[in-house]
Design a protein that fits this description.
binds zinc ion, alpha/beta, Rossmann fold, 4 strands
């Protein structure tokens, strides 16, 4: 059930079939010179739209802004603060709860550390606050089995690399503008550098040149399967 498209009466009658809402989290974030800024949002939304064909749940509109740190100064990135992400997460979940939703899956296509911590932190406080609510907060890549990683040939593939590029080739090939070069960030961690462009000019972590639509299709199949399993486990979980 795509929340964007249902009416108030359809929403109300659907509550007798499901009390689960899945909220996709994305970013507006530089993904090399070859991928669109909304790459993370597009990937998670595409996977969830397919999962919605296999299970009954409310698919909420995506939260298309996230917390980006490593790419914060790159052209195009529009980041929000962890504080904002926690606040909007609390509002969305409380809003759904007030309307009868009891199970919430907050799932991100963006794997940033502060971003996912903010999601989990909000999930922790909401779980304590909302009686009878079950909340899962996660980055989609964290629930993929080993075989998903094995689809890629790049050893340390991540942001805008082989796999994300393959996924966007699968979702909408026209959005992929050539290929950025293989690159790995060399941020001077644990020092927090202000000029991140100096250490990571291309905003690519991996090798986009190894990407293919076929790899994207196979990875998407695994992603959808993992999400469906997650929904099943959240729905069968008994919150004590
Ligand atoms: Zn990404």
């Amino acid at each position: 059930m795509i929340l964007d498209n249902v009416t108030m009466t359809e929403f109300e009658s659907a509550l007798s079939k499901t009390k689960t809402m899945v909220v996709p989290y994305g970013t507006v974030e530089a993904h090399g010179t070859h991928l669109p800024l909304s790459t993370d949002t597009m990937i998670i939304e595409a996977a969830l739209k397919r999962a919605a064909k296999e299970r009954e749940f409310f698919l909420a509109p995506a939260l298309n802004y996230g917390v980006c740190t490593s790419t914060a100064v790159h052209p195009g990135t529009i980041t929000i603060s962890s504080e904002t992400l926690r606040a909007i997460t609390r509002d969305i979940v409380r809003g759904g709860y007030d309307k009868g939703i009891r199970r919430f899956i907050l799932i991100s296509g963006h794997g940033g550390g502060l971003h996912s911590s903010a999601m989990r932190e909000a999930g922790e406080s909401l779980t304590n606050e909302l009686k009878g609510a079950t909340i899962a907060a996660l980055v989609v890549y964290d629930i993929l089995p080993k075989e998903a990683r094995a689809i890629g040939e790049t050893k340390h593939d991540s942001h805008a690399g082989e796999l994300e590029t393959s996924l966007i080739l699968h979702i909408n090939e026209e959005l992929v503008k050539g290929r950025s070069k293989e690159e790995y960030p060399h941020l001077p961690r644990p020092i927090i550098a202000k000029d991140k462009l100096k250490y990571w000019p291309g905003a690519v972590h991996g090798n986009p040149e190894k990407a293919s639509e076929d790899k994207g299709r196979r990875l998407m199949d695994i992603m959808v399967k993992s999400i469906v399993e997650l929904i099943d486990s959240v729905e069968s979980f008994e919150q004590s």
